[in-house]
Amino acid sequence: MHTLYNRIQGRNLERLAALSDGIFAVAMTLLVLDLHIPSAANVHSEQELMYALGALGPQWIAYLMSFLTLGIFWAGQQTQLNHIGEGTRDLMWIHLGFLFAITLMPLSTRLLAEFITYRAALGIYWLNIFLPGAMLYWSWKYATRAGLIKADTPQEVRASICKRVFIAQSLYAGGAALCVINTWVSIAAIVLVQLNYAIAPRLWRHSK
Amino acid sequence: MHTLYNRIQGRNLERLAALSDGIFAVAMTLLVLDLHIPSAANVHSEQELMYALGALGPQWIAYLMSFLTLGIFWAGQQTQLNHIGEGTRDLMWIHLGFLFAITLMPLSTRLLAEFITYRAALGIYWLNIFLPGAMLYWSWKYATRAGLIKADTPQEVRASICKRVFIAQSLYAGGAALCVINTWVSIAAIVLVQLNYAIAPRLWRHSK
Amino acid sequence: MHTLYNRIQGRNLERLAALSDGIFAVAMTLLVLDLHIPSAANVHSEQELMYALGALGPQWIAYLMSFLTLGIFWAGQQTQLNHIGEGTRDLMWIHLGFLFAITLMPLSTRLLAEFITYRAALGIYWLNIFLPGAMLYWSWKYATRAGLIKADTPQEVRASICKRVFIAQSLYAGGAALCVINTWVSIAAIVLVQLNYAIAPRLWRHSK
Amino acid sequence: MHTLYNRIQGRNLERLAALSDGIFAVAMTLLVLDLHIPSAANVHSEQELMYALGALGPQWIAYLMSFLTLGIFWAGQQTQLNHIGEGTRDLMWIHLGFLFAITLMPLSTRLLAEFITYRAALGIYWLNIFLPGAMLYWSWKYATRAGLIKADTPQEVRASICKRVFIAQSLYAGGAALCVINTWVSIAAIVLVQLNYAIAPRLWRHSK
Questions:
Q1: For position D204, what pLDDT does the model report?
Q2: Greatest Cα pair distance in chain B
Q3: Which of A191, C16, C37, D13 is buried most deeply by CB count within 10 Å?
Q4: Which contacts (CB < 8 Å, 24+ apart) does range B155-160 have?
Q5: Do B6 and C205 touch (CB under 8 A)?
């Protein structure tokens, strides 16, 4: 019954990009709302202020890690959309699912900052990295199958997008699995994987 | 007295789309701000954390339902705007009314999460689904009457947009009416209708 | 010393429009964050919930009024930018001043909702309507003097934009002045002026 | 290993601009969320309300200063992006670093408002001005070296962008250093530098 309507919906990839940019922008900025600052009532000298700020360390690590995560997913989604020529209703809902996972990131971050030594908190945080990755994987598979990818996209690019999601997610899963030792080891591993995606390739290329 | 000014206002459909995307992005991300996480002071083991998270179930259901609602309305408004060639001041104010209802969604969601067994909370939530639907219906009727619809829009599309709003709203109203039995039955019915609009048509089409 | 740099800055009206849409979207949605819902601890029946929601009346009036204000200013700024062909650094800073006043709107609204019978709160709220109006007036005067207005803008449009700001602001000032009687009278007058700008012209035109 | 993927990522400068506008819009509007209004419980007359609002002075100064800072950086980034013809993955991550610093601004502002007489708070605030400046400097240096700058950009413009960041940051650093005397002197100096960048050039040009 909805066939016709469904065919006319979701065509506008620009509005999907605009909604995505908006959600990423809000999520990135909201992360910081959960960073608590010391209260003036408990601080009586410059030293106490420095000390109180230092004690917020775990919060900051969780915050930095989440900003990196959001940056990586924003870049990944953008790369896909740049190579997709046309939208469909299905593609739109896959990306809404992706964005749903993104909106949960400030919450997972808050949970991890509050319970940074708990494996359950780390597991939920990892799920929040896994879920958008899975949606992006699905999105590219779907777009390939449905013939939505721009004709001028080279074959290597087509292949590399899914491979990249797969490798990155394997590394994240490996990092998360390290929580059998300790959540701190696990967090360090995840941050290293993220920095690899954000920074290292730049160094490698410079040495090219 | 304002005739000239009114004729020159509201032409820019792109800025209306940008404002809409911004409001939807903020509303979708703000929903999550109202999800409370357990406090570290009350949790002393991994199991207690899992249990405390599980106890937040009603919050999560309300959150998921609201994200679906926002996604459905975002897609619906986008479909309309894609087929409207030119804006007017009246159209702009109809859509501002639509967006007004959208900004209330995080509040209705919070109310429903807090009072999930109260019919009054469910009734207000339903009103918050009905109101944007009514504005979209009005928007399309107005655009048709004022001749703003793009010439290349097929007759079936023109008809299907209003029919779809009408059928969807009837289903939501039916779902909301089930609260005479129990608010949980009602919520389940609304979520099913939403999933039907978001996911089911994909399955149907795949089996085509 | 900054002459060259200043000449190359602020050209991009599209990014100014995008920033404005973002700020309006956030401000419109944040308004609702300040609406308090009753606490489950104080409500024990459906009737108590209805009653508790009804008691929030003043909040709702302030919220609705602020949404209308933001909508009117968003439409007004958009109309100006549609007729301006090119940006300059000065124009950009005038509009940043305008946006500064817009970001204060959620705060003035909260203040008015909390102190709805206080003239000081109403005076500050009125200032928050006056300030963006003054910036828009300045923006158009500046754009006219600097020759930034698109050549195809008819003379009547050029004149009508400033006149409209002037008349609207006089009506708002008159409404605010009614607070010598009572803040409620004043609020009613301001809302009537706003509805006149948002809705009434539609009725007038329909009867044309 | 990631070479191919890295070459195809980050091309879309429009989406970078959209994300930036979103983050600036949210950050500018969130600043105001931290401004506390007096509580109705503690205010019993018009005079007490005026007095209570006046006592919030330090908050307002920090808020105004942060809005100016954000406006200056938004304008600065926009000027750069207008002259960059093509994006790369590296450029994207430099700008994500810039945006990271921007999202911290509401937090530094809150910290400064709470501890306005503490040098540590001022030092952190200054760092939050220095960091985005350094990223913009890096961004332009990188774009120059990588040949991403539009061919039609005059040589003087190319030189003036880095010089401007350098001079502005020296003035901010000088202002921040004045906190050896007193944080208020330091804040006054920073605000003066900001107003110089926002307003003074306009006056100078008018007198041209």
A1: 56
A2: 70
A3: C16
A4: B156/A4, B157/A4, B157/A5, B157/A8, B157/B83, B160/A4, B160/A5, B160/A8
A5: yes
Burial of C66: CB neighbours in 10 Å, binned 0-12, 13-18, 19+: buried
Count how many pairs of residues, chain A against chain B, have C-beta atoms within 8 Å.
106
State residue B19's pLDDT score.
93
Of the pLDDT bands very low, low, confident and very high (cuts 50, 70, 90), residue D9 is low
SS3 breakdown of chain B: % helix, strand, coil, rounded to 5?
80, 0, 20
Q: Indicate if the pLDDT at residue B118 is higher than 90.
A: no
Looking at the partner chain, which of B24, B46, B75 has a beta carbon nearest the beta carbon of A120?
B46
Average pLDDT for residues A129-143, to the nearest whole number? Answer: 93
Record: contact B6-C161, CB cut-off 8 A = no
The per-residue pLDDT for range B151-183, each reduced to its tens digit, is: 888 888 888 888 888 888 888 998 888 888 888
CB contact (8 A) between residue A25 and residue C25: no
A177 touching C (Cβ < 8 Å) = no
Record the tokens describing residue D147, joined without a space: 């040949």
The 10 Å Cβ neighbour count of residue A7 is: 15
The H or E element that residue D19 is part of is helix D13-30
Token readout for C158 is 């050029």
D56–C contact, CB cutoff 8 A: no
Kindly state the tokens that stand for D12: 């879309």
Q: Among residues D139, D109, D149, which one has the least CA distance to residue D125?
A: D109
B59, B81, D123 from D175: Cα distances, Å? 48, 50, 11
Judge whether residue D207 has pLDDT over 60.
no
Which residues, 6+ apart, have CB-to-CB distance to A208 below 8 Å? Answer: none
